[in-house]
Design goal:
heterotrimer, A mainly alpha, B mainly alpha, C alpha/beta, A: mainly alpha, ABC transporter involved in vitamin B12 uptake, BtuC, globular, C: alpha/beta, 6-stranded mixed sheet, 11 strands, binds adenosine-5'-triphosphate, binds magnesium ion
Amino acid sequence: MSGLVEVQLLNGIVQGMIYALVAAGLTLIFGMLDIPNFAHGAFYALGAYVAFTVVSSTGNFWLAIAVVPLVVAALGLLVDAVAMRRLARAGHVYQILFTLGLVLIVQEAIVLIWGANPTSVNVPAALGGGVPLGAVSFPFYRLFLVVAAALVIGVVWIALERTKYGAIIRAGIDDPEMVDCIGIDVQRLFTIVFGIGVGLAALAGALILPIRGGQPSMGNELMATSFAVVVIGGLGSYLGAVVGGIFVGLTQAVMTILYPAASEVAIFAAMALVILIRPQGLFGNR
Amino acid sequence: MTRFAVLVAIVALAPLVLRYPELETQILTFGLLAVAFNLLLGEMGFLSFGQATFNGAGAYAAARVLIDAHAALPLALLVGVIAGAITAAAIGALAITGRGVYGVMLTFAFNEMAYYAAFQWRDVTGGDNGLSGVPRPGIFGVSLADPTHYYYFTALVVLLAFAAVLRVNGSPFGAVLRAIRENEDRARAIGYRVRRFKVTAFAISGALSGLAGGLYAGLYRFVPLQAIDLDTSTNIVIAALLGGTGSPYGALLGAAIFTVLSNSLSHVWSHWPLIFGLVFCAVVLFFRGGLWSIAERWSRRAAHA
Amino acid sequence: MLRTRELTKRFGAHAAVDGVNVEIRRGTLHAIIGPNGAGKTTLFNLLSGELRPSEGAVEFAGRDVTCFDATTRSQLGIGRSFQRTNVFPKLTVFENVRLAAQTRTGESFALWRSVTELADVSARAERVLDEFGLLGYRSQLASELAGGDQRLLELAITLATDPVLLLLDEPSQGLSPEDARRLIDRIGTLAERYTIVLIEHNVPLVMRLATEITVMNFGRVLAHGTPDEIRANPAVRTAYLGTRGTR
Ligand SMILES: Nc1ncnc2c1ncn2[C@@H]1O[C@H](COP(=O)(O)OP(=O)(O)OP(=O)(O)O)[C@@H](O)[C@H]1O
Ligand SMILES: [Mg+2]
């Protein structure tokens, strides 16, 4: 064994953590808040490009990771306030369509601001090099990515499941009027959840930048895969999104070893299977 | 009826006024895609992001029988229709298991799956090189090699399909689709098997999209991978919305404007999608009926004056 | 005509309907009364197939229909109206009722006919609209109707499906007192042609019309009998009639 297989599997986990971050955000916004945000992938792409700007102007990747989720989340909240709430009464279809228009705008704005060619940044110096693994080595930065993503996912999960605010948020989703009655501003809580959801996507974009670079269409490609992830995991289930993300990342990696031609199709075939056998998803309870 | 007559007149005269028969043929095939989409959204209330899947299925199937079996054009189109209908019925049956947004996501995801399948299945689709060398046989001894001839052939087929859509919308079946759009639960409660109606609507929409795909393959004698990709699905959604989902005429109008603009604006300013996105967002926020409803309001006002 | 056996529906640990046995005899107007949250609507949902029971069975016209869905039960002749108006908002009043009438034709998959060619369907829709005094509003959108007229439309849709058994869930809710009285009177005349189960809070009106009454509380049947028996029942008086006035 030369370590190549291990590297592939580790890469699958790296990619899986990115899916998990994005899908966790998607499930917060889609599943919990019931806001159909088809521009989630665009926020992911923006995350990568804003990170690119921060890194190339300050040279500080850590700053980028800290700032990017906040900046992009602020943008997301603006969209929510200006359009999504106003469109809530018109129905889901129009919310989806608005975010579709947003995707066009963001994608073209990226081309306009950063150019159509792929961009990239170097791995931060502190995380250069790699861990030897047989004949090859596995980059430190990727291990860092896995750990960082796991930490963030864990913190958000604890905030949702184990804190007073999380309990209020979950109660507010089940019965907004009731929570309103006890004098808590539900709308503000929802805004925070929306911000966290967008922030997770943006963070994923920033984290992937040193590995994959940025392309204007990166968000679109991710969108379909994250849909598959949340369908497999169960729409609205945070745990499902995380497990589904890692599962999909690993499936891709395994298929790349076994039968590369079908590595993409396999994900969606898995999704179709889940719909047929367990429509509520692996961790869904509806 | 008068509206349909006006449409026929416009379609018949268009090549005499604007001498771009290929562009005009493309307007018709894309228009048929938008009309097929609108059957699902405008009548049944289902937002499908999978229309390019059905278009691609029809295009590849028709192209294959043209290339491999030297089939006659009507037969090839029929194969395209069947391929589109079957694909759409299968995807529709899966997509409607969930409610609301869930189904929209599924059509989106399955479109991506279809894209990757076409991308990898090179022997059949040509992969990202596209499927070239599609013959365009004449029919009944009339050659269709001339772009204007092919335009008129396409026009005939598309107008017939459009008339069929009007007919379906006005049928008892179309009435049930609107009931499902308005209140699915009540439709079920008064005795309609909603699932059957939905799958049938998908099959019809897929048949029309497959027909459009077949005509498109004949138009460029080529099927690009783009025929089945998500951007095409998205463009169909945008075009139909722009025109207005209240009427199949609106979808057709939107498709015509979209095709002309995307062909011309891309030469003027390469970043035109930015403006397009802004306009589209504005339509969603402020003119939900699309252009057609604005036109209807004007004509009503003119009638009153 | 319709009978339930130990019908039970639990939401989590809470039994909204709890071991209910009722029998609806052909030709009766059977009223169901009971305080808010007693489980009346849930019982209807079990009868019409909107919900599956946790336990027990529903029998209709001598058949076990427990496993049939709402569509099938509707096709068998169980028609129901909803407590919350449940119409097709952006269709005209006429289309609303015509759609209901169309369910009984077998023409709903006819792609090639015009819906206007189904003359008997249109005629039936017009007859029902006329019966409810809605014919004048036929071209208005359902959502543009006044609240009271929407309640009438709700009933008209149910009737247009040509049911043999009518389940009416508080049809007078939201009507002014005199409109409510008129509606209940109309239901009284409907009772000459249909078997009716009526949920209604206006107890004096119910007492006047119903042939049989079932009183529910906490998901259970508290009492059952003729209006006179119910009036005389001490348990009902304390649990329901005594504590609540008419609404
Ligand atoms: N889908 C549901 N999930 C959970 N609980 C439910 C559901 N539907 C009804 N319930 C509960 O079941 C109980 C009975 O409700 P139901 O609507 O049947 O009462 P009702 O007798 O029709 O009352 P009302 O007179 O207010 O219409 C209530 O406590 C209600 O909260
Ligand atoms: Mg009730």
